[in-house]
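> example.struct
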């Protein structure tokens, strides 16, 4: 099958896009990826067996104008025209669109070409935009280009017209069912990690003991709503009773503010900002830690998604400290792999850090998390669900007859 995945961001690199595209390619499908163009990136290239097409207006444009013309907003004609060319040239048989911004574009082209459209709903997009507006100091910009009200309207239409929807967690599935979407058209393909390769010799225990600092790690973007401010205040309080160190891997618009706050709290020796690091070496940082933290503030968004880093910490047998966002709290309590605290409650964070300062407790919790990943929360299972779902969608559209139908109709309608 020839599949085109549509992603509104720059690639590489995005972990879920990479896993989804590579898994489909490894299953024998011909995978194309339409994405935004980053600085100095070619228009087309092949990465790990995936043909990457980047969205630009034909001809040379100043970089700034190119970026403006390819803003991923619903029905942007630049994206639609590029997608039409890809569908026509490569006889695409299924469109797999990531999240809401370009879903209407995919549906318009898919309906014309007579090919199914699957929505990969990695997050509650309208709720994410509401969070951005809530904490942003550029409200006019967000209302214009990232309008949560418009996104909600688009979402209500899109989820009813797509042939199938992939979600990352049970809570997201339940939200769609409450919107009137049949559960038969929804599959859970979560943000779980691949199981290979792991340094088992170093991933089965936490090494800090008496006299050593409790080593925390945070991996992810530095944006509003990530709860790192509360974590820094908690570190200041906890440091009065025990040595502690937090390593932050990631970049984002709040980094400068977090670094300033860290200095104001006297934490410069306890908090290390490493910025963006190569994904290949992130596991080494996790192995060199005692506890993985996910301090996301509880909102409608965080109550309907699940972060990759939760499972990454668990895979390396590291206990986790997470806020009480619904999906995280459910998994952590169910698997007994860490502790939850009340979102925004600095005192509760300090109490939970005190419990996690016990090395024996960390070993038990970390082992439970590792076992849960091996048995349930891994990409071997979610990737298999992805492949089976995609194959079933195309089968429902006509089985073996679909390719010839698509080829004829796409050539006629889209040329």
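> example.seq
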């Amino acid at each position: 099958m020839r599949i085109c995945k549509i992603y509104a961001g720059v690639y590489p690199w995005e972990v879920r896009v990479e896993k989804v595209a590579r898994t489909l390619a490894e299953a024998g499908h011909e995978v194309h990826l339409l994405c935004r163009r980053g600085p100095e990136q070619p228009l087309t290239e092949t990465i790990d067996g995936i043909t990457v097409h980047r969205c630009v207006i034909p001809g040379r444009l100043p970089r700034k104008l190119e970026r403006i013309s390819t803003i991923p907003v619903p029905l942007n004609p630049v994206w639609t025209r590029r997608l039409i060319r890809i569908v026509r040239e490569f006889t695409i048989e299924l469109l797999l669109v990531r999240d809401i911004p370009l879903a209407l574009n995919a549906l318009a082209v898919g309906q014309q070409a007579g090919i199914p459209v699957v929505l990969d709903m990695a997050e509650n997009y309208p709720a994410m935009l509401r969070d951005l507006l809530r904490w942003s100091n550029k409200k006019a910009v967000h209302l214009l280009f990232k309008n949560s009200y418009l996104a909600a309207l688009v979402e209500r239409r899109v989820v009813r017209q797509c042939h199938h929807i992939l979600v990352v967690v049970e809570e997201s599935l339940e939200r769609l069912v409450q919107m009137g979407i049949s559960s038969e058209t929804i599959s859970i393909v979560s943000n779980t990690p691949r199981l290979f390769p792991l340094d088992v010799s170093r991933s089965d225990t936490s090494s800090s003991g008496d006299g050593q600092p409790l080593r925390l790690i945070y991996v992810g973007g530095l944006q509003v709503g990530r709860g790192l401010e509360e974590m820094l205040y908690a570190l200041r309080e906890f440091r009065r009773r025990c040595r502690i160190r937090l390593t932050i891997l990631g970049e984002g618009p709040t980094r400068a503010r977090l670094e300033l706050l860290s200095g104001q709290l006297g934490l410069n020796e306890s908090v290390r900002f490493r910025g963006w690091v190569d994904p290949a070496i992130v596991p080494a940082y996790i192995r060199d830690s005692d506890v993985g933290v996910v301090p996301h503030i509880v909102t409608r968004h965080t109550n309907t998604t699940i972060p990759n880093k939760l499972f990454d910490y668990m895979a390396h047998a590291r206990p986790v400290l997470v806020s009480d966002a619904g999906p995280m709290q459910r998994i952590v309590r169910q698997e007994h792999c860490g502790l939850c605290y009340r979102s925004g409650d600095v005192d509760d964070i300090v109490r939970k850090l005190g419990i996690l300062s016990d090395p024996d407790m960390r070993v038990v919790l970390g082992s439970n998390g590792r076992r849960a990943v091996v048995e349930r929360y891994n990409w071997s299972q979610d990737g298999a669900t992805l492949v089976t779902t995609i194959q079933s969608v195309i089968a429902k559209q006509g089985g073996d007859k679909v390719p010839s139908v698509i080829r004829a109709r796409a050539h006629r309608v889209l040329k």
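> remarks
Residues 190 and 259 are 32 Å apart (CA to CA).
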